[in-house]
Amino acid sequence: MSYIDGFVAAVPASRKQDYIDHVHSIQSLFGEIGVTRMVECWGDDVPEGQVTDFRKAVKAEADEVVVMSWLEWPSKEVRDAGMEKMHTDPKFEEAMQSMPFDGKRVIFGGFEVVFDK
After folding, report:
1. Which of 36, 40, 100, 105 keeps 20 to 30 A from 66, CA to CA?
2. Which residues contact residue 20 at a Cβ distance below 8 angstroms, ignoring those fewer than 6 apart?
3. By residue range, what is the domain housing residue 67?
4. Rounded to an integer, what distance in angstroms lies between the CA atom of residue 26 and that of residue 30?
5. CA 106 from chain center: how many Å?
6. pLDDT in tens, 18-54
7. Is residue 117 part of a domain?
8. Within 13 A of 94's CA, how many CA atoms are on the CB side?
9. Which of 77, 71, 90 is nearest to 30 (CA)?
10. How confident is the model at residue 61 (pLDDT cuts 50, 70, 90)?
């Protein structure tokens, strides 16, 4: 079964097109290392919670929008090999330097798919 890497970040609202351009530019790089699907979502209805929420999780500022994305891999093994390649490929280093948001406030994790209908 597939494996998912999930990400949540805060992006300045004024940089929406920069974000879209960025993800288009790195999509082929992820394909080269085994990603079968890349989904990027721009926050539209992301409410503030009383205890915790997406905005608090990424320390979003008033002028930032929460984005959520995920990468789908064929398996965890392919993902692990792809992530290793990603961390040693200079093309990814360049791409990470041009992110239109603060990468230190991204939350992420790997997830085993347990249901997919």
Report:
1. 36
2. 40
3. 3-112
4. 7
5. 8
6. 999 999 999 999 999 999 999 999 999 999 999 999 9
7. no
8. 6
9. 71
10. very high
Distance CA 28, CA 42 (A): 20
Residues in Cβ contact with 53 at an 8 Å cutoff, skipping those fewer than 6 apart: 46, 47
95: its two tokens:
């791409």
Count of structural domains within the chain:
1
56, part of any domain: yes
Task: Tell me, yes or no, whether 66 lies in a domain.
Answer: yes
Which CATH number covers residue 49? 3.30.70.100
Residue 35 CB neighbours (<10 A)? 21
Nearest Cα residue to 56 out of 110, 14, 107, 100: 107
pLDDT above 90 (res 74): yes
Write down the residue that tokens 């965890």 correspond to.
76
Could you identify the residue written with the tokens 């805060």? 10
Radius of gyration of the chain (CA): 15
Q: Is the residue at 53 inside a domain? A: yes
